[in-house]
Q: What sequence folds into this?
């Protein structure tokens, strides 16, 4: 499968725990985006990378959220001290510079109990 | 920042009829407008997009129109089929797909056989 992949697909955690998600973009895509989608809403931008550089972070990204893309390939998104309001689908997308279409992964559905 | 409004939030049509979904955007610098289709539990997938130097684009039963002066764009689906039933999202960005997409809240389209 040469598409964007995400792991895990589902995560249930208790409030206060830390969680980490992984995204593997399409191999030649150097830009990688994280979005969050809650029920009945469109995806909302969280942060994005060009290669290993984190270029922009949304105001939605509180101090409890951190993202990395250490070698410009896969990326991780960590949420510390999870809250019930963090429950959502976390989507990753990738694109090659000078292209137009962002390709989305299947998402990680997080449920905080 | 950019704000994208999408209407209607739900739309039901009879099979074979046409469906129209409308979006407005606020940032005149936006120059790329994709439409994504998201089936239940699946990733968003691009179905058509338009750039600001074009007023209309068509791909088989799907067309998109753009009015830069009024800052609105629309998705038109003709001869609807039950498999067109899904949630459709419009989006906008200021640098083709290389900057974060700002999404509308989505339209749930139901095609009744």
A:
């Amino acid at each position: 499968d040469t598409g964007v992949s995400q792991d895990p697909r589902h995560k249930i955690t208790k409030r206060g725990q830390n969680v980490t998600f992984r995204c593997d973009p399409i191999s030649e895509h150097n830009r990688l985006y994280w979005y969050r989608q809650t029920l009945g809403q469109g995806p909302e931008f969280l942060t994005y990378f060009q290669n290993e550089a984190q270029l922009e972070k949304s105001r939605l990204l509180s101090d409890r959220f951190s993202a990395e893309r250490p070698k410009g390939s896969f990326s991780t998104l960590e949420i510390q001290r999870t809250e019930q309001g963090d429950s959502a689908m976390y989507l990753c997308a990738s694109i090659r510079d000078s292209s137009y279409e962002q390709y989305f992964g299947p998402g990680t559905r997080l449920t905080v109990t | 920042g950019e704000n994208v409004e999408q209407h209607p939030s739900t739309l039901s049509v009879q099979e074979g009829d046409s469906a129209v979904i409308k979006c407005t955007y606020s940032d005149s610098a936006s120059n790329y407008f994709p439409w994504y289709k998201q089936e239940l539990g699946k990733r968003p997938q691009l179905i058509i997009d338009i750039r600001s130097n074009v007023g209309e684009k068509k791909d088989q039963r799907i067309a998109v129109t753009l009015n830069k002066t009024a800052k609105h764009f629309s998705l038109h689906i003709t001869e609807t089929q039950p498999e067109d039933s899904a949630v459709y999202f419009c989006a906008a960005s200021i640098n083709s797909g290389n900057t974060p997409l700002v999404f509308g809240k989505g339209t749930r389209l139901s095609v009744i056989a």
